[in-house]
Predict the structure.
Amino acid sequence: MRKCPYCDFNSHRAPRVLPERAYVDALLRDLDFELAQRPWPPIASMFLGGGTPSLFGATEIARFLEGVAARLELTGDCEITLEANPGTVEAGRFRDYRQAGVNRLSLGVQSFDDQRLRALGRIHDGDQARAAARAARTAGFLDLNLDLMYGLPGQDEDTALSDLRAALELEPTHLSLYQLTLEENTPVYRNPPPLPDEDRCWRIGEVLGETAAKSGFARYEISAWALPLRRARHNLNYWNFGDYLGIGAGAHGKRTCDSGIQRRARVRNPTQFLETAGTSQALSETRRVPAGELPLEFLMNRLRLPEPLSWAQFRSGTGLPPEALEPGLSRARTRGLAETDDTGFRLTPRGQRFLNEVLLLF
């Protein structure tokens, strides 16, 4: 296994033999450490992601889920998502993952075009991506997400649309359509390929959105589209600034306490995490978010959703009055990026297109 050259996530080259059992043991110790300090309400969703968790066998995935269920109350319809890459070895495990309790699968397809997949450093090809999606359906996954990237080297509207049409033929219930960005500290940032300019990327995004909508998908977040009643509950919790418990190497968590909002992060290195899990040494950061930073933190998440933001939602999420949004909100309104009324505010179409510009005002 190798790391994709555009990826800035906390992922590492996999060893020849994965320490599956030891890592699951470490995850459960980490969970015990967290729960010893504060209880958590019933869990409505779990997301097994970051890197390639589907490299783990179904036996250890099942043992982890059983361990979580023994320590936490899960809602009856708890959404349990597993990220997977569409390699043929992993696809053969899908039925076992489903039997282990995973009920939502997210496949990192990115493209069905072999040339562009090679440019992205992906280890699968288009045929393997199609086979993996069909295998997921055969395994009994009713909720299937396909990740697609656009703004790829040499891509135009027609080639991007070809990728989306190939995805739609596989009948997913959810689509993630996001633009390739060159993140610092990645190989493609240091040696960038020729990419479509921003205007072309905007047109590509518009064409993809129109096609997805005609196929019955509704956009509920900047990069997320879903069929009716198939939205990703876990993602929505993030965008609504909800709390979440993060365990594992590089994991982040957020908790609203009497003293405000606390964020925690785990050490990023998997070996270090294995050695320290279950102790405070596994924490790389614990901090309370200062009141002055809360408006921006809240908006960075909530403004990814298309619905207007009410003053009541802002107060509930941050504990702050609407006046805390000034003077940024006034600047956004003056520049035609936002509109306000007695109940709250919403971004204009221009504001939705230039969300980063809006956030900079805060």
Observations:
- The radius of gyration is 21 Å.
- The mean pLDDT is 91.
